[in-house]
Amino acid sequence: MSAGASLPLLKINRIDKSYGDTRILKRCSIDVAAKETIVIVGPSGSGKSTLLRCINLLETVDAGNILFEGRDLARERKNEHLVRQRIGMVFQNFELFSHLSAVENVMLAPMTVLGVSRHDAHDLALGLLTKVRLRERADYFPDQLSGGQQQRVAIARALAMKPKVMLYDEPTSALDPEMVSEVLDVMAELSAEGMTSLVVTHEMGFARRAADKIVFMDAGEVILTETSEQFFNGSTHERARRFLDQILH
Ligand SMILES: Nc1ncnc2c1ncn2[C@@H]1O[C@H](COP(=O)(O)OP(=O)(O)OP(=O)(O)O)[C@@H](O)[C@H]1O
Ligand SMILES: [Mg+2]
User: Fold this and answer.
1) Which of 60, 163, 220, 241 has the lowest CB atom count within 10 Å?
2) For position 65, what pLDDT does the model report?
3) How many domains does the chain fold into?
């Protein structure tokens, strides 16, 4: 294998982030290989959302860098649009456009950002809605859809830009319990198909099933990165074991 082939697709390299005097992220590093799914866990306030927001350039980092396909994105602001295309983000609260139907939500970015024709965008969107099992809801508006359905539209919308990495920030935590699995199933399927994914979630069943690696964060630090197997069969780190114990009981 050449040196280039072994580079991680996404390299988060010793990043620091403060708000005012408060240091939120402390030298955080994570390597994400192509096709890998990494689940990030950790207590509330540990910096998980901030980390994802830095990757997607919704926040700037104070130190360190984030390399995507070997390029330092934060230092090349002109690449911002590229980042937004290559990195899909799914939030807790779906954030669909309420005045657009499901299919229009999915069509919008390909048409406005990529210049895809309305006809082709419509075909693409219907294909993606089929993938997230919502073909029959294509013409519904967000307020006519359940939370689980809205989140699956949001996933389809992110996929419409053909991202190389998907970031999910607690995508199921705003959902009623009976809708959680329909969203996790779609995410797990994408992961199994090789979509590189970075997922913040408390859903340990999903982590066990879909994650290659688990990253445990605490107080702004990446405390450990372990294979999912290691993590669930007794993490090498005491704090991670305690955290998992609390979550599972
Ligand atoms: N815009 C902001 N301004 C100031 N402080 C912020 C801002 N955003 C986040 N913080 C602080 O940064 C810390 C980390 O927040 P973050 O949302 O990243 O944590 P988290 O791990 O995602 O937590 P949760 O599990 O509750 O979502 C918290 O102490 C939070 O109060
Ligand atoms: Mg968060």
Assistant:
1) 60
2) 92
3) 1
What ligand 1 atom has the least distance to the C-alpha of 220?
14
What average pLDDT does this structure show over 29-40? 97
Residue with structure tokens 């999910």?
Answer: 168
Q: Rounded to an integer, what distance in angstroms lies between the CA atom of residue 190 and that of residue 41?
A: 20
Nearest to 231 by CA among 248, 214, 247, 243: 214
- Could you tell me if 14 and 64 are in contact, meaning their C-beta atoms sit under 8 angstroms apart? yes
**Under a CB-based contact definition with an 8 Å cutoff, are residues 157 and 132 in contact?**
no
Atom of ligand 1 minimally distant from the CA of 51 = 18
Find the CATH number of the domain harbouring 211: 3.40.50.300
The stretch 30-55 carries a mean pLDDT of 96
Q: Output the residue whose Cα is nearest ligand 1's atom 28.
A: 45
Residue 1 clears pLDDT 50, i.e. is over it: no
Structure-block tokens of residue 48? 């998980």
Regarding the beta carbon of 21 and ligand 1, being less than 6 Å apart is answered no
Q: 190-248 pLDDT, tens per residue?
A: 999 999 999 999 999 999 999 999 999 999 999 999 999 999 998 888 998 899 888 88
- The domain in which residue 171 lies consists of 4-248
Residue 138 clears pLDDT 80, i.e. is over it: yes
Distance 73 CA to ligand 2 centre (A): 22
First to last CA, the chain: 44
The rounded Å distance from CA 220 to ligand 1 centre is 9
Distances in Å between the Cα of 74 and the Cα atoms of 58, 71, 163, 190, 192 are 10, 9, 18, 27, 30
Tell me how far the alpha carbon of residue 83 is from its chain's centroid.
Answer: 13
